[in-house]
Amino acid sequence: MKNKIFKGIVGLMVLTIIGCTPKKEEAPAAAAVDNEQIKTELQAMETAFANNMNAGTPESIVYYADDATSYPQHKAPLVGKAAIEKDLKDELASGPKGTKVAYELLEIHPSSDGNQVVEIGAYKVTDSTSAVIYSGRYMAVFQKKDGKYLCVRDIANSDRPMPEKK
């Protein structure tokens, strides 16, 4: 009899504890990330970047955050938007005339909230006859700032031979 009373009291205590424990609040569901919209937005940025480079106006490129860092091939890292823009201008001034660049977004990897995106892409540089001079791949990390993606880090590699030492 004592055993039945003891089991009843223990059972009642367990039910009381379970009933009085506050329920865990479920986190609100994160808004779904629209990969196609992100791809469209980033490809438009890549196309605008190429159009400005091809027009010889890299200063018109809206792509990099002010605190961006770029890791170009065969060069020291470029820190800050101004340093990156200067390097782009120098590249245009020293490169062969009549070349065109095109960028193609290959894949994206957005964060769960879509505020950061890693982009993997490819590029081609062609001459005036559209023959490929060299090509390569790149990775870029974007952060959404004031509703727009800006590149905060990028790195590229190409199949172009190393520049000759002077």
Structure description:
The protein has 166 residues and is α+β, with helices and mostly antiparallel strands. 33% of the residues lie in helices and 34% in strands. The protein is built from three helices and six strands, in the order H-H-E-E-H-E-E-E-E. The protein has helices at 2-20, 35-55, 81-94; strands spanning 64-71, 78-79, 100-110, 116-126, 132-145, 148-158. A six-stranded mixed β-sheet has the order 2-1-6-5-4-3, covered by helices on one side. The radius of gyration is 27 Å and the shape is globular. The N and C termini lie far apart (100 Å).
The number of helical segments is 3
Apparent shape: globular
Task: Enumerate the spans where pLDDT stays under 50 for 5 or more consecutive residues.
Answer: 10-15
Helix content, binned percent: 25-40%
Q: Return the average pLDDT rounded to an integer.
A: 85
Q: Taking strands numbered 1, 2, ... along the chain, how are they ordered across the largest sheet?
A: 2-1-6-5-4-3
| H/E element order | HHEEHEEEE
Distance between the termini: 100 Å
How many runs of DSSP E, i.e. beta strands?
A: 6
- What Rg, in angstroms, do the CA atoms define? 27 Å
The fraction of residues assigned to DSSP E strands is 25-35%
Structural class: alpha+beta
The profile of the biggest β sheet is: 6 strands, mixed
